[in-house]
Every structure is written in C-alpha cells, then in structure tokens.
Design a protein that fits this description.
The chain has 17 helices and 17 strands. With 475 residues, it is of the alpha/beta class. The strands form 5 sheets. It has an 8-stranded mixed beta sheet with strand order 4-11-10-9-8-5-6-7, with helices on both faces. A 3-stranded antiparallel beta sheet has the order 13-16-15. A hairpin with a 2-residue loop joins strand 6 (213-220) and strand 7. Helix 1 (4-20) crosses helix 3 and helix 9 (175-186) crosses helix 10 (201-209). It is globular, with a radius of gyration of 24 Å.
Length: 475
Amino acid sequence: MNRDNSLSIVTQALRDIATNAVPGSKLPSVRELTKKYRISPATVERAFARLSAEGLIEPRPGQGTFVRGRADPIRQADFSWQSVALGPARVDNTFLATSLAVASSGSISLSMGYLPPDLQATALLAGALRRAAVQPELWDRLPFEGFEPLRAWFAQEVADGGVFTPHDVIVCPGGQAAISSTVRALVPRGAPMLVEAPTYSGAIAAARAAGAELVPVGMDENGVRPDLLADAFRQSRARVFYCQPTFANPSGATLSVERRAAVLAIAADARAFVIEDDWARDLGLDGPPPPPLAAGDRHGHVVYIRSLSKAAAPGLRVAAIMARGAALARIRTARSSDDLSVCGPLQAAALSMLSTPAWRRHVNAVRSALIERRDALVVALKAETAGMVSFRLPQGGMHLWAELPDHIPDLGLAAELARRGVLASPGQSWFASEPAGSFLRLTYGATPALLREGVARIAATLKEWPGNGETTRYW
C-alpha cells in the first residue's frame, strides 16, 4: 500500500500551519490528525519528523508539538499582525489547491483535470514554439486583446464565424483566468449567480472570490432543467448563469438540443447572460458534440469561453472569451486589471499548432485513447464494485461521475483512497451548496492497467466500509 500521498498531504498541511502561526503555537495532536486525515499514527509521526528536521516545529515531551521560533541573524520576524490586517478568509479554496497539486510518484491519479503526459501534444507544441521564438515581433507588444490571427481562429470556430468577429475575442492565459475575469465583469459583488448542480469547482472558487452569491440549479442526464432554471432566475433575480452545456464537469451531462433552445429563451426573458464554458469541445467520444449555445444566440446573451489546454497540454495556457456589446467592454476592462497580454510566442505557437493537419491527427488519437480508457474504467467498475456505485456512460470529456451509497461519505472515502495510493475527487467539492448525494469524480486519463488497479483498490475500500449495500446502476 502506497502511503506517500497521505504523508505528503499531512506534511504540507502542518507546514502551512507552522509557517503562518505565531512561534510557540501548539499543533494538533497525533490523535487529532489521525482522525482528521484517516491515516496511521506512524504517518503523522513521520510528518512531524520531517518538519522538525526542517526546523519548523519542536516536540516538547509531555506537552505536545509546537511551532519553533524562527531566529533571524538581525531580528526576529513577527508576522502575527497580518492576521488582524487580513481579517477572516473570504474564500476557502482548499479543494482547488489540493486538486492542482502534482500527484506523487507511485500514486494512481483518477482526479487530474488534464490529459496525462502520454496523450499531450508536446511534440507539436515544441516544434511550434521553436518556430515562434525566433520571430522578434512576437516578443514586442501585441494588441491587449491578443494575436489577431489567433482571435480570428477562435471566432471562426463558432458557427463557422457566423456569430463572433475577431474583434469580439479576448485571448486569456487559460480557461480559469477567462472564467474569473468574466464573472468579475458581469456579476456585481454580493449579487446572485446561477450555476448547475453539480458544477465545475474552479467556477465556484472564481465566483466566491468575486463576491457572488451562488444559486445552484438542478440538472439531470440531459443537462440543466429548464423549469428549475426559469424558477431560479425569477426568484433570485440573477442576471448571470454559468454552465457547461457540453460534457459538463463533473457530471458528464450534455444539454439536449431541445433544452438548448429553452435555455436561450429563458435567458432572453430574464434579460440575463449565459456564461458558456465549452471546456471539452474537442473531446467528444461518441460522435461530434452539438453546436455551442453561442451558435444560436442572436442578441448577445451568451458569453462564450473556449480553452485549448484540455485537448493539448496543461502548460498551453491559452483560452478565449467571446462576447458582444457592452459586455465585451466590461470584460475587456476586467482583463486589463489582471495582466497586459498573453505571451506572444505562446499565442503564435498555439495558432501554428492548430493550423497543421497534425493537430487533427492528434485530436483523433486522443479521442481514440480516451474511448479505450473510458471503456476500461466502465468495465472494471461493473466487474469490481459489485453493486456499490451508480454511473452513466460519459459521451465525452474525461470524467465519470460515480454515485455512492448514501452512508459512505465521499470526503472520507477520498481520504482513505489517498491513503491507499488512489487519488479521486470527492463529490462535495463540486456543489455550490449541500450536495444531492455522495459522489466521486473519476478521471479516465490513466492507462487501462492503472485504471483497473485503481478500481480494484476502490472496490476493496468500499467492501470494507461498514454497512455497504448493493445499489449499482449504469446506463
């Protein structure tokens, strides 16, 4: 059993406490940490030993473990004033920070949000970057909104250029930055914002950081329910709805064609914006995805976000926001307060990669690999979990949304799985309010062999959980 990940998690948590605490502060006991992280006392002791060797903490026999005073050759630094100056934390991004951590070697990652290294377009990107890096003009100032030919590419991708012009496009350093800027531009602090339930945890974090009040709207296998969406707009008086209509993360649901028309009509009636996060446009596995909501939007209700990193590589931090009218001006202002531009050679390299036949070959190869890996995960779950989980077959993206029996807490299960060397995302983190049940988000980017081993460990953990029952359903 691999305990490296559990050790890393508790060590980092204690390091954060020790770094920010006043010297002499007492740390949680071994018993408290064992219970909180569902790990062995020996693992906690190893974490204490590491931090003691780093000089951050000191054990006091019979009293406990304390934050060591940090001596300075000139003077002792005192950061305690910062707690008063900062006030209470406005946003809890613990899950987002944890999900962004790089998995330790030896662990099986079923929680990553990007393609694994063996599926990334690294060779294409390396060649494109080499060509772009020797062009001096790309290192000079580019238009704030982005490299003009790349903006034209993004605009052309929506309804063959029939909705947006290049001047409606703002290039951003990744999809998360695009979401954050758009939310800040469109949602006044303290105002409500509608989101699907469940929804992307990064959008939850961005909205809370912007001071928005999140209002969850229920969804099913066909996406958000129009009746609940209309009620939410009417009751909350919200003017913004964030959604992922195609291969939603984490549920995998795709909004049906009929519901797409209904969502646009509801937004128009509410005089509201729809932020469409089309994160997995290139990752349709069982046929092409439906056109984006933006393709059917005439009057500027849809603000469209498209990212390149999911189908290429996590280091390709290039995305775009597309909007029209006064909304575009607001978003441009919000973006200008964050940074002045996205790296010119990176933008040019992205366009160079997208413009070659090799890009389509890469996307097709990624789809074939993800189909194989998704199917391996599904077969393993059916064979191993023996009536303990429910799920639907995802038609695209890279995540499977598994429902657990109600008596198994997803946070506790995820912690126990981490102790056993398997990283999975607990469902609670993907809800803006109380979750509708207990879930795990399982990513099928790993190789089939690793997926089968990960499922075997999940199944063993579930079978050992007190009171498990047989409730498997899959479609």
